[in-house]
Request: fold
Amino acid sequence: MKRIAVYPGSFDPVTNGHIDIIRRSSRTFDKVYVAVLVNSSKKPLFSIEQRMEWIRKVTQGLDNVEVDTFSGLLVDYMREKGAGIIIKGLRAVSDFEYEFQMALMNHKLSKDIETLFMMTSAKYQYLSSSIVKEVARHGGCLDGLVPDEMKEEILKKAQQVLNPDVK
Ligand code: PNS
Reply:
């Protein structure tokens, strides 16, 4: 039986921490769908298309990884793809409560779906999309946080939208 997993998230934008989880997942599962989904509690900075394009670019060499999007419930998307495993990255204890709640809710919605938590690599423990946007908004250095080819676009957009008074 094929082991099909889904790595869902907002990826607004994808960080080196996310990419590390995608790489490690692609070695663990036969197929990994990276699903760019809507988190109704967040207002995204980048369009779904832009986020998907970035992830596609940086996962080009990973043949069993597919980048996709879906606008409904994660469990419905998983059923459509025949996937049984949700992959989530866990950084610190602070992630746990929210992720625990989501894992239990997804399991309640679909009993045959399990959430598998991967510990984020030590060097990315402090990294999140939100902190990348915060640094970018003030024109800070994004080296090592996101792939080099994304840096300029992130800095430009974050300053235009999040810091509109800065010329
Ligand atoms: O990167 P994020 O913002 O923490 O990812 C959260 C995301 C997008 C995975 C989550 O909000 C989600 O699964 N959204 C789709 C709708 C859904 O199924 N919600 C969870 C069940 S209540």
